[in-house]
Amino acid sequence: MAKVSVKFFVELRDITGVKRDDFKARNVEELLKKLVEKYPKLKDVLFKNGNLNEEYLIVLNGQNVRFLDGLKTRLKEGDVVSIMSPIVGG
After folding, report:
1. SS3 of 65, please?
2. What is the pLDDT of residue 27?
3. By three-state DSSP, how is residue 67 classified?
4. Topology of domain 2-84, CATH
């Protein structure tokens, strides 16, 4: 299990109350489950009808996970995962 940093942008930062948080997870799917456990309000934002909300980007070390292995993308120690809407601001 890898320790990774998650960076939150825009309204996700407002929901979590933090810019960054650290989690241990094997892949993106497990990471998202842990995020929702810690920040339950994220569930309604990040998921629609049980599927990942297409309005949000999940970026692993600068690469959109949709172009990697999606939710099954494996995480490595020290990875940085950014979660943002397509229109990103400070």
Report:
1. helix
2. 98
3. helix
4. Ubiquitin-like (UB roll) (3.10.20)
Q: To which residue do tokens 């920040």 refer?
A: 39
For the chain, give every domain's residue range: 2-84
Q: Is 45 helix (H, G, I), strand (E, B) or coil?
A: helix
In one-letter notation, the amino acid at residue 38 is K
Q: Under DSSP, is residue 44 helix (H, G, I), strand (E, B) or coil?
A: helix
Tokens of 89: 């601001």
- Sequence-separated (6 or more) residues with CB below 8 Å from residue 7: 19, 20, 80, 81, 82, 83
Q: Which is nearest to 25 in space by CA: 58, 48, 57, 53?
A: 58
Give mean pLDDT in consecutive 10-residue pieces for the chain, a chain of 90 residues: 94 94 98 97 90 91 95 97 74
Supply the pLDDT for residue 26.
Answer: 98
Write down how long the chain is. 90
Tell me, rounded to whole angstroms, the distance of Cα 37 from its chain centroid.
13
State how far the alpha carbon of 84 is from the alpha carbons of 1, 7, 62, in Å. Answer: 24, 9, 12
